[in-house]
Amino acid sequence: MSLFYNTSVQYLKGVGPKLGQMLERRGVATAGDLLEHYPRSYEDRRSARNIAGLRADELVSLVATIMRVSSVPMGKSYRKIYEVVVSDGSGKLACKYFRVPYKGYFERFQPNMKVRVSGRVTEYRGKVQMQHPDIHFYDEAEEDGDKILPIYSEIDGIKDGKIRSLIGQVIDKLIDNPAPLSDVDIKIGKSKGVPDAFPQWLIKKYDLMNRGEALRSLHLPEQGESLQYIDYKTKAHERIIFEEFFWLELHLARKKKGIQREKAISLNKPSPLVNKIKSELPFILTGAQERTLTDIFTDLKKSHPMHRLVQGDVGSGKTLVGLLACVHAIENGYQSAFMAPTEILAEQHYKTACKLLNPLGIKVSLLIGSLKEKHKKEIYENLTSGETHLCIGTHALIQDRVEFKNLSLAIVDEQHRFGVDQRSKLKRKAISPHFLVMTATPIPRSLAMTVYGDLDVSIMDEKPAGRTPIVTRKAFESKRDKVMGFLADQINKGRQGYIVYPLVEESEKIELKNAMDEFEKLKKMFPKFKFGLLHGRMKSDEKDAVMREFRDGKTDILVATTVIEVGVDVPNANIMIIEHSERFGLSQLHQLRGRVGRGEHKSYCVLMLGYAMSDVSKLRAEIMESTEDGFKISEKDLEIRGPGEFLGRKQSGLPGFKIANLIRDQKVLQASKEAAFELIDRDPELKSDEHAEILNILQRNTEFTVG
Ligand code: ADP
Ligand code: MG
Q: Which of 233, 515, 519, 521 has the fewest beta carbons closer than 10 A?
């Protein structure tokens, strides 16, 4: 019988109805599905070694015996670290997992089982270990020596060997000896061998392997390329990984093309005021600020709307960049809007804006919920008449009653604090305004490209000159008195400080109790100091009142839950103590720490650790001690948590990749993105014959719902 890509697995030799149904239930219904059941790893039998001889950074595979399998909770979260300890007589090796490779992975292992462990050796605190190695049962029969072997995820208990042989059969009949096509076959649209949707120009330009060849090589590894296989770096891997990214990128490219078809006001007059402001600042802009402004001005001059994300680390000076963009729009004769997530932040921006812009005759207004009705009305009128050039505000800005005369630029600060709805409501205050979103929660470039693929991204990874580094140290309970004494010293010198408590999600009541109890204790401990208390249960005007007092120096120490995370700029505050820091994620710790180190005084951040902390929380604390670079921190965070967790499962909307990995395969992702965007440039509607199959696949797959 001839075999086609979409022939049911039932027709394969060795597949009865029962096995056929089992495979189908797990999504392996056709010969093609089997080929797309990629090996989850490879094993290099030739680099077999013993544990005592391991060196960091080597890729190895060795036979050992399981000693124990254990798990420890990671901080207070529901997640755990798993540890499998194995021994081979020469030594012991700890295998650590920060996530479960697949369901049931650890349950399979029992003490004394003989297994094969394959992966990269890492070093932690002077000892070798492995993180996320591949462990599977040692099978005497398969140990045929000199080989690199593909390892498959189990399908409902079907053994590796069986899967391997079925795939071998498909490769033989479909790729090596494809059946000639009959007239009927051609009529019903069958294609010989493995179909390939990519047009020739794309395959040539991006130097890709042909699809059938690539699939063959994934399953039947070329001997002599074992390291490349284990690292997923062969040409075959490149082709298949490229393809996985491609469908996502193509979706984003089409979305972006849609935006480019919208018409916007081209703000193409020069703006001398921007230069005047720059020349009068007490500092010069950083290179990153200049680059970002160039990006923005280039966008604003176009006749389709800007759609740009500024990813800037905490304290990189995004506000100024946003305000200068507004000035450009205003000099072109149009209004701007600048939305921030809290009143205190909106006020802060308003103050900055007034100081810079009022002397130039630019009229700025502040629109926040807590204003008196009369005052709000006045602002509404000034916006409608065009009297106000720039309106800075909170969610109050997106109320229906707010109407602009001629809004052309909308900016959202700390964009991740707003919902999609809120952002688009601001956008709808004009027909198609230029749109700029800013965030201080950097995510690694690799993810930004996919998650924000329809936005252009400017990166501000440079801090203004003259900032003194923040000294970060972890401390255990036994050092509490010393830490508190240090805090008191700083306050006595006239500085201010933060003490932060974790938000315990399961019970807001406990959180409240913690912060409040501590608040009372601290007041007794330091009767001379003035304390403020800030927590999530307070109304926003209460919070703002407490924040204002702190900003104005009326309180010395702010005891707070994580509500202080966003954007607040109090340069005199130079010390932060984070209690139970093991309960915070890395990016949250980084955001929190960003509240200090904003003035001329040397700053400190103390990470208090409970004794019940896990390896991961210690690792996080050590990462925090080692760097202040938000981009590096986010890379590490991504490494520890994996993309799904990192972005939040629901939020991410990323389709599951079978083989592609956003961290490992960044180069391929970049190329794939270029290719997808180039394709849409060449053939926006995918009308040409050579792109017909791409269009076909795109229309069948509606799972790409990113953004
Ligand atoms: P973020 O990027 O976190 O929003 P801000 O815009 O709040 O940072 O800026 C932090 C501080 O840095 C502000 O006090 C701002 O005036 C100052 N600042 C901005 N740009 C520069 C610069 N180029 N040189 C020195 N200080 C700067
Ligand atoms: Mg900011």
A: 521
Three-class secondary structure assignment of 473-503:
EEEEHHHHHHHHHHHHHHHHCCCEEEEECCC
Residue nearest to atom 5 of ligand 1 (CA): 317
CA distance 100 to 98: 7
Q: Which atom of ligand 1 is nearest to the CA of 289?
A: 23
pLDDT, mean over the chain = 86
Asked whether 329 and 335 are in contact (CB, 8 A), the reply is yes
The pLDDT, as a whole number, for residue 142 is 61
Residue nearest to atom 19 of ligand 1 (CA): 317
Instruction: List the structure tokens of 271.
Output: 């703006």
User: And the tokens for 410?
Assistant: 């909308």
Q: DSSP assignment, residue 301? A: T
- What would you report as the CA-atom Rg of the chain, rounded to the nearest whole angstrom? 29
The residue written with tokens 């600020």 in the block is: 289
Ligand of minimum distance to the alpha carbon of 566: 2
Is 85 within 8 Å of 95 (Cβ atoms)?
yes
Residue 156's CB is within 10 A of a number of other CB atoms, namely 9
Query: What span, in angstroms and rounded, lies between the C-alpha atoms of 17 and 23?
Result: 10
User: What is the per-residue pLDDT across 476-531, written as a single tens digit (0 to 9) for each?
Assistant: 888 999 999 999 999 999 999 999 988 654 455 555 557 778 888 899 999 999 99
CA–centroid distance, 591 to ligand 2, in Å, is 11
Q: How many helices (H) and strands (E) does the chain have?
A: 24, 21
Cα–Cα distance for residue pair 254/680, rounded to 1 Å: 7
Q: What is the DSSP string of 11-60?
A: GSTT--HHHHHHHHHTT--BHHHHHTS--SEEEEGGGB--GGG--TT-EE
Structure tokens at 38: 């990629």
- Quote the tokens at residue 163: 């899967």
Distance 351 CA to ligand 1 centre (A): 14
In angstroms, what is the span from residue 566 Cα to ligand 2's centroid?
Answer: 8
Which of 578, 583, 612 shows the shortest CA–CA distance to 595?
A: 578
* Structure-token match 């520890």, residue found: 640
Count of alpha carbons within 13 angstroms of residue 36, beta-carbon side: 21
> For residue 588, what pLDDT is reported?
85
For 223, phi then psi, to 5°, come to -70, 145
| Res 85: pLDDT | 95
Mean pLDDT calculated for residue range 628-640: 84
Cα gap 247→625, rounded to integer Å: 40
Q: What is the largest CA-CA distance in the chain?
A: 94
CA distance 289 to 292: 5
Determine the average pLDDT of the residues in 419-438.
87
Q: What is the per-residue pLDDT across 361-387, written as a single tens digit (0 to 9) for each?
A: 999 999 999 899 999 999 999 999 999
Whose atoms come closest to the Cα of 293: which ligand?
A: 1
Q: Closest by alpha carbon to 121, among 52, 47, 49, 55? A: 55
Out of 27-31, 140-144, 333-337, 420-424, least confident range: 140-144
CA 355 to centroid of ligand 1, rounded, Å: 14
Sequence length of the chain is: 707
DSSP β-bridge partners for residue 86: 66, 93
Residues within a 6 A CB radius of ligand 1? 283, 285-286, 289, 312, 314-320, 440, 464, 567, 569
**For residue 475, which phi and psi values (nearest 5 degrees)?**
-145, 140
Return the number of other C-beta atoms located less than 10 Å from residue 183's C-beta.
7
Share of the chain above pLDDT 90, in %: 47
pLDDT score at 652:
43
**Low-confidence winner among 352-356, 541-545, 627-631 (lowest mean pLDDT):** 541-545
Find the 413 Cα to ligand 2 centroid distance in Å: 7
